[in-house]
Amino acid sequence: MAIEHPPPLPRALVHRTRLLDRLDDGTRAPLTVVSGPAGAGKTTLLADWARGRGAARSPSWRDGSRAPAALLETLGRERTRDGDPLVVVIDGLDAGSTPAVFGERLTTLLRDRGERLRIVLACRGEPPLPLGRARLDATVVEIAPRELAFTWEEARALLATRLPDAAARERWQAVEGWAAGLEREPAERNEYVRRELLDRLGEQERALLLRLAVVDEPVTPELAAALAVAAVGGRAAAAGVVLERLARAHALVVPLDRHGGSYRLAAPLRDALRPLLPHDERPPLHRRTAGWHARAGNPEPRLVAGSPDDDLATRRRQRTLALRQLGVAQLAAGDVDDAAATLEQALGSARSAGLDHLAVACLGPLATLDAGRGRLRSAQAWGEQALVLAADLGDERSAALVPAHTGLAVVAWQRDRRCAADAELRRAEALLAASDHSIADDAATPPTTANRRSADDARPPLAARDR
Description:
Blueprint: H1 17-26, E1 31-35, H2 42-52, E2 60-63, H3 68-75, E3 86-94, H4 100-113, E4 117-124, H5 131-137, E5 140-143, H6 145-148, H7 152-159, H8 165-175, H9 179-182, H10 186-196, H11 203-212, H12 221-227, H13 229-232, H14 236-249, E6 253-255, E7 263-265, H15 267-273, H16 282-295, H17 301-304, H18 310-332, H19 336-352, H20 356-372, H21 376-392, H22 402-414, H23 418-433, H24 455-458
Parallel strand pairs: 1-4, 1-5, 2-3, 3-4
Antiparallel strand pairs: 6-7
């Protein structure tokens, strides 16, 4: 099989240093797996990395979409001239169509030649490999779909010549950092999702996804079965199997826990699906959603079904507010994991009910929480989402943004960006000074001038930080 070369790089290229460094580190392990949906930027990232290594260290490049199992046989016979490990990029694997024999042969190849061979796989979905054992043995480095998503800084750099900052932020949020979505207008984006994902699915999978797209909330297998009776026979177990298969093969279906208890459709997938569902089929699905939740003892879905009343809307707001207050109390008490789960539940409730001001008030504490435990990327994402949403509401002076600015200050400080950290703290202090004791006042106390701890004391150990 002929050795190929990396594809040409696009004109609008952002050197994603955080991921390029991960790939460099990955060549110390036998296997690196870069997984994400179509259009996540896998090939561009790997091509940028390959060309940046220089001619002497450039990896061998192979097309994994053509006979991937046979490709491994040729790799088993190759050697490098200088005795260094042979680095091979296999691009274009599709987890949904790659045969199981590929995983078996690759496992054998790495076992026999692991010291002299480095494989970098780029694939849609999770490849057919025993990754659980490799993770325990620390013989695999993974770049997951959530890591491939563009950060705000990366998206702004990509779109700098095409969109002003406000429009770029709006698009970045709308597509959840998905590379192909950043570069396309909505109509073109929807067509891309249909061509690259939906057209490759079976009828059962398409029918299920089409009906799940009517709801904004997380979907359990039980709710999926209620919505897609014809597709899965009304059986939750069958719906769960389909959802799990979709999540493993297509990262635009996102599992929300490790046990298959609930899933959500990524915004680009949901946006592409909704126009495909005839209008007259939507109200029955909304009513079915409401009925399912009512039987489960949850009154909220009457809002989803399009029959809200004032009392119910008030109860929805009160419940969301209570969840947020509980999460903040858990955070103040040091129950970090419980606080994170409660605040994310409150955020989901706020978003599904269109309670944007409450969503801002949930995002800020999440930014502070993740910053405090060293999860800098997610902390920055929460904080930036809070600022963007508040700007959309014309509420940039809200005290609810105090914890968002605080979280962003901690992120900047831990990245040794002292000026940026001080600027964020000054913004937090200014909002506190002008505060009218709004919903944010009971959030975890931010480090103002009067009560700051040493930021160095607040840093988690370097190994615990997620830069």
